[in-house]
Amino acid sequence: MVDELKESAQRLLKTLLKKGADDAIVHAQSARLKQVKFANNKIAKAACDNSSSASVFVAKDGRTASTSLKRFDVKSIEETAQKLLRFTSSLQPNPSYEGIAEGPFKYVGIARGFDSRVNALEENGVDVVESAINTALAQGAERVAGVLEWGVHEEFLATSRSVSASQKGTSLYFSLRAIAGEGSGHKVTASRTLSFFDCNKAAGQAGELASWSRKPVACKAGEYDVVFDALPFSCLLDTVGSSASIFSAEAGFSFLAGKLGKRVASPALTLYDDATLENGFNSTSFDDEGTPSQLNLLIKDGLLRTFLHNHSTAKRYKTRSTASAGLVSPQAWNLRVKPGRHSFDELLSETRNGLYLSNLWYTRFQNYASGDFSTIPRDAAFLIKNGELMQPVKGMRVTENMLGLLQRIKALGRTCTQIKGWEVDTPCIAPSALIEKVRITRPTS
Amino acid sequence: MQSDLADYCVDFALSKGASYAEARLEERDSNGFLLKNGLLESAGFDSRAGIGVRFILRNCLGFATVNRLSKEAVRETLSSSLKVTSAASRLTDCTRLASSKAVKAKDVVSCSESPSSVSAEQKTELLSHIDSAVLSSGAKITSRYLSLSDEVVRKYYVNSEGSKIESVYPAIDFFYSFTLDANSRSGHRYWHYGDVGGYECFKHWQLDKVVEREARGLERNLSEAKSVSGRKFDVIAGPEVVGIMVHESVGHPYEADRILGREAAQAGESFVNPSMIGKRIGSAAASVVDDPLAKGFGRYCFDDEGVRAKRKNLVTKGVITEFLHNRETAASLSTASNGASRASDYDKEAIVRMSNTFLLPGGYSEEELFSEVKNGIFIKNFQEWNIDDKRLNQKYVGSEAYFVKNGEIASPAFQPTIEIDTPSLWKAVAACSNKVELHAGECGKGEPMQGIRVSMGGPHCLFKQLRLA
């Protein structure tokens, strides 16, 4: 942590309390990130981002407000504190606010959350990209595009309720889409350490998928049993994670609202939110108010066991915080699926007349509360006949209800992959999934 | 603003061997308020500033960003960035930028009710008033969510070719969502209003009336609507629906960086290729433009490469006539940039983006347009939509929609769904009304994702014989 930033955060907290704040949180963060973007088998851009900031939350007389610190000198801190409290006093009370977590707490570090080799990657990132491009091309890809990102972040959190916490971490993310003819394949890999980061494996798999799917035929509309690979299954689970926030449930953006204790998925699905996960991309020792992170069981054998809460929402619902602050909206950190017992080939063999989907995109809801939505299979997709992958297909759409879909999960794979991506905001550790009777539509004109 | 620091960045990059450099210094002052089920759950203000420096070193494009605005901090970040870019240069094609005239300009958008002139109390009262209007619809409302934010963005752009542009853009952004139950069905309406300017826009929007009317319309739809499933109809799409259609299936596929494969990994590519200029894609009644100079949420006078903004004629009478370009794509296709390069923030790379994209009006009054329909469907607004990453296979699901009988709006129709390929959609355009309406949106593209302000719209548009699901 930049010492100046930490000192500034502590100074700001003291100033806010001295000026009459009832509760206050200062969360200072700094990050050094690099990205190499590639397209058409060449590097398109090399980027470097250094940032530092401090977000500030304050409660006074039942009113709450937030801001961030732009400059870290004594005068700026004094002015920010004064302005924030004046702003807070001008607001309506927030009756839903029930305070912040009471410290002090003890924290456990994230296993394999930091790897000093990531910081030293520098120019070698270009070699990683070159190797991955060549691997995809060797597997039959004609063109590839994607990004490699790596970085180091540090944070410090201090609150008026005796919290003082800090942590640092590293992150690595690689995304490669391979194209061959009309076919394509997309794979991602995400990790906190270089030891679990295999770009060549992802690139090779994407290249193979592209090569196998180079001549797709139009897919007929109808009902199919669908094997969703880990990436598209994670796209679906991402919406489960956001629906599990009590904030989403109250705001009308959750298909899980009102379903606590009820069946929301087939017995095959057990889903955790695990901020403590070793090498978890979003793993953290504490949430945004300093509560030590924990493992939350969201769905057990298909039954909804909890919503995600911060201290304030938990108090309103007479339950315990799930260490999911977000001060306004509680959030999932890493969604983790309890693996099933099937190998990928066994999932296929369970399928007589079906589809294999390797990716999804553009998931949009008609009604978040009911779960009516559609999403578009992207990249390689294949018909499955009697347990065998057959010809590649294109031009279809999954038109479904999310609760209905989750309740038709028939089986899960036993191998889980950590997925993060454009359509997967919350990292998911997910297997492939076989879902029955999925409604597939296509353009009618 | 610390414009001298931006100048310093350009000089520093050139001194280290860059053949081109530009710096974009941005300061943003913003306020945000969130009302959930009638309670003010979040309120705040923010100030952020930072600098983004783009350069070409050994033919490779580099980009460095930092929010500590000191010479020491930018030197450190730039040095690190130059090192990685230099290493990347062995794996890059020659990055070329189309020539562009150096510009020195000041571009300040004025407003009568600036964000700073409206107090926090007034802003929260505005939200509470609209929230009350949702309830006064009388519908069985099950959730309400409203958010309001304002922002003033000050930019200083400088490049090594002599351009220096200062700009000040205020903007207002409003989002609302409500769910309601009727007739054992549930419905969800969420939409977005936004404009470049100040709080005077609320007078034009009349959002209290909008949300009350929409809640009643949705309730009636859930209570009375009948299915249209599987049949062909003449369809009149309202400006909100026309807007999403032009944005998704005309604007995006005409972005030249997609066409050239630069965004292939995430935002996708395009069914359009460079040889399709001059090819017919729609009926003669379909003309689509992207116009950053129009009054809308995507308004700007200079893009983020310092190129003067202009209207782009994407489709003219059904024929593909122009793509959206930045300087890099323009060089690749041997043309000039038409000023479509935009970044959502200082720490994001400027890439090819839309601005205000809309279908041009026709010669019909709305009454005359409806009178053309004997047995059809009017889709006033929508919720669910999506399109594949080549922009061919799209879907729009109506929310408030009605049957049209002999030119008159009749009973409600339940979620009429258009699922169609792009040429079929635009070839079905038969006529357009004479009044354009723009709607605000946030368009996502790039990795890391950049959500950028745009507007989209058009007139009421008559499509002949679409099969609806």
Strand and helix map with partners:
The complex is a heterodimer of chains A (445) and B (469).
Chain A: H1 3-18, E1 23-39, E2 42-60, E3 63-69, H2 74-89, H3 116-119, H4 124-138, E4 143-159, E5 164-180, E6 183-191, H5 199-212, E7 217-218, E8 222-228, H6 230-243, H7 246-251, E9 271-274, E10 295-300, E11 303-304, H8 311-316, E12 335-337, H9 344-349, E13 353-357, E14 360-367, E15 372-377, E16 381-385, E17 388-394, E18 397-401, H10 402-407, E19 409-412, E20 417-421, E21 424-430, E22 433-441
Parallel strand pairs in A: 7-17, 8-13, 12-21
Antiparallel strand pairs in A: 1-2, 1-4, 2-3, 4-5, 5-6, 8-22, 9-10, 9-12, 10-11, 13-16, 14-15, 15-18, 16-17, 18-22, 19-22, 20-21
Chain B: H1 3-15, E1 20-36, E2 39-57, E3 60-66, H2 71-88, E4 104-108, H3 120-135, E5 140-159, E6 164-182, E7 185-196, H4 201-205, H5 207-224, E8 226-227, E9 232-237, H6 239-251, H7 256-259, E10 288-290, E11 312-316, E12 319-320, H8 327-332, E13 341-342, E14 351-352, E15 356-359, H9 366-371, E16 375-379, E17 382-387, E18 393-398, E19 401-405, E20 408-414, E21 417-421, H10 422-427, E22 429-432, E23 437-445, E24 450-458, E25 461-467
Parallel strand pairs in B: 4-6, 8-20, 9-16, 15-24
Antiparallel strand pairs in B: 1-2, 1-5, 2-3, 5-6, 6-7, 9-25, 10-11, 10-15, 11-12, 13-14, 16-19, 17-18, 18-21, 19-20, 22-25, 23-24
